[in-house]
Amino acid sequence: SLKVTKEFIRPDSGKPASVALGLFDGIHIGHTKVLQQALKNRELAPCVFTYTISSFVPQIKKNYLALMPDEQKCAILERMGFEQVVMPDFSSFKDMEPEEFVEKMLIQGMGAKELSCGYDFTFGKGGAGTTETLCRVAERHGVKVNVVEPVTLDGEPVSSTRIRKAVEAGDIPTANRLLGRPFGFSLEVIHGNHIGTGLGTPTINQAIPEGFVLPRFGVYASWCRVGGQFFYGVTNVGVKPTVGSDKVLAETWMPEFSGDLYGKRVRVFLLEFLRPEQKFHSLDELKAAIRENGE
Q1: pLDDT at 128
Q2: Is the dihedral of CA 2, 211, 213, 115 positive or negative?
Q3: What is the pLDDT of residue 255?
Q4: What's the pLDDT score for residue 92?
Q5: Which residue ranges of the chain lie beneath pLDDT 70?
């Protein structure tokens, strides 16, 4: 199982480390290439150095919106086969000189023998460390560095920024191609105001957390994973115009599912934008529309 720690420590297996470096927000197809590089050498323990998104945002990018919460990132890294993720708060190392960071944290701390990063990776005080710095310091210590070139799609480099723009525009198929998997969220099911239940169409409500990218408001075709099973769904993302709500909610109707999911985490994958959110003038109108979306 994956060990997640805030400390720059050596892997439990006692092997030297092969470390992938980066924020890896969203783990898109470009990130995957860096991560796969770090998994190649079987003699080394595969590790990831990253940092918590919540600690990075206030320091660097005020309006940064994450593509996935840290838990989801770690779940994907575990499935990929990583042994350890070092995920400290950004503030604990951001003021270190680039050379000191490589020597003290990665080579001495984590026992790195190999480092993998993207072509645009920067680190250290004021982001002064570049891939050139990394290669220079690593070479002195006999540590191998793999710098992965940009992955392009439709002639443009794949980036988290491009994915965010696609999600915000409701262009989910493009976001999914850039990610290499369906965009979605795994969130706890909360109590809505039970209007759906009264309509004979129970829905699940999930509040989209602050600091998380917001899909264009409207109605989407979706897939939902409950336990190990998949159900198709219709998901409305918005501030519930008919019933009034202050939080951004994803409200999903699964016509083939029945059962109580309150308090459980359900994974909802968005597939395609169907239509903008609309306000219904009566519950009967809302009922008819929910049924029609499920047809």
Answers
A1: 93
A2: negative
A3: 84
A4: 87
A5: 56-62, 193-201, 240-245, 278-283, 286-287, 290, 293-295
The separation between the first and the last C-alpha atoms of the chain, rounded to the nearest angstrom, is: 42
**Radius of gyration, alpha carbons of the chain:** 22
Q: What is the DSSP string of the chain?
A: --EEESS----TT-SPEEEEES--TT--HHHHHHHHHHHS-TTSEEEEE---HHHHHHHH-TT--BSS-HHHHHHHHHHHT-SEEE---GGGTTTS-HHHIIIIIIIIIS-EEEEEEETT--BSGGG-B-HHHHHHHHHHTT-EEEEEPPPEETTEE--HHHHHHHHHTT-HHHHHHHHTS--EEEEE-B---SHHHHTT--EEEEEPPTTB--PPSEEEEEEEEETTEEEEEEEEEES-TTT--SS-EEEEE-TT--S--TTSEEEEEEEEEEE-----SSHHHHHHHHHHHH-
Task: Find out whether 147 and 117 touch, Cβ atoms under 8 Å.
Answer: yes
Dist CA 24 CA 121 (whole Å): 11
pLDDT in tens, 133-186: 999 999 999 999 999 999 999 999 999 999 999 999 999 999 999 999 999 999
Q: What are phi and psi of 291, to 5 degrees?
A: -65, -40
Q: Which two tokens stand for residue 96?
A: 């270190």
How many Cβ atoms sit within 10 Å of the Cβ of residue 244?
A: 9
The amino acid at residue 265 is: R
Q: Please say whether the beta carbons of 189 and 204 come within 8 A.
A: yes
Distance CA 287, CA 162 (A): 36
Q: Which pair of tokens denotes residue 83?
A: 């042994």
pLDDT in tens, 63-90: 788 898 888 899 999 999 999 999 998 8
Are 122 and 130 in contact by the 8 Å Cβ rule? The answer is yes
| Closest by Cα among 103, 83, 89 to 20 | 83
What global pTM score does this model have? 0.86
